[in-house]
Amino acid sequence: MPKAQKLEMLAKAQMVADKALEMAAAQSVARMRAGAAQPVPSDSDPVKADPMATEVGSRTDQA
C-alpha cells in the first residue's frame, strides 16, 4: 500500500476517533446536566420503602 494511501487512511481514522470522542463528551455533559436538574431530596420528604423488601419477622418471612 502506498504511503500516501496509508496517511489518508490514518487521517480518516483520526477524524472518526475525534468525532466519537466529541460525541462521548457531549453525552457526558448532557448526563451531568440532567443529573444536576434532579431535585435534591430534603429531610422532610418521606422515605419510600422498597416494596420487594421484607422485614425480619414479618408474616411473609415465616411462610
Structure commentary:
Residues 31-63 are annotated as: Disordered. This protein is mainly α. The protein contains one helix and no strands. The longest helix is centred in the first third of the chain and has 34 residues, at 3-36. It is elongated, with a radius of gyration of 26 Å. The N and C termini lie far apart (73 Å).
Helix content: 40-55%
- Using only C-alpha atoms, the radius of gyration works out to 26 Å
- How large is the share of residues in beta strands? under 5%
- Structural class estimated from helices and strands: mainly alpha
Q: What's the SSE pattern?
A: H
Low-confidence residue ranges: none
N-to-C span:
73 Å
Counting DSSP H or I runs of 4 or more residues, the number of helices is 1
The major beta sheet can be summarized as:
none
Global outline: elongated
Which whole number gives the mean pLDDT? Answer: 79
